[in-house]
Design brief:
The protein is of the alpha/beta class. It is built from 6 helices and 6 strands. The C terminus is likely disordered.
Amino acid sequence: MIEAEKHFVIINPVSGNGKALDDWELIQAILRKNRLLFTYHFSAREADITEVVKAKIEAGYRSIIVVGGDGSLNEAVNGIFFQQAVSTNELTLGIIPVGTGNDFCRTHKIPFNYNKAIEIIAAGKKVVHDVGLIEFDFLPPKYFINIAGCGYDGFVASKSLNCPPSKKVIKQFTYLKL
């Protein structure tokens, strides 16, 4: 069994276009400065975080910290909710925002400053958050936190990215959150 106060940190090295990897030494130093005991792992591929988080919870970790963005956070949430070792109420999930969008952190006013984000984790500030489950006809179910896109957002993004640069038009629109 892992010590209760020991955190497992999962780093997505490609988050923020490589910023997570570039800043890892600084982030480690701040974690240590705040007297957080931790072990860490760099994710190796897409969906790796889900499997690693599940395994670490089954090994005894109860506090997971994600160094990444919304996608990394989503994978960790799926690891937490698909594991069978303990009730999700016994687990905590922290995030050190390093992604390109970080919508979850913006929504919940989690600071983008590493020192301040880690101080929140070290202080043990916790908030209970709802998590949704979406079930598909031909794919495995997935959990989501903060927002679920139903394909239209991806479609719009793909179309805007495929436009020739001279024809791109940037406009604002209202985004419906579920």
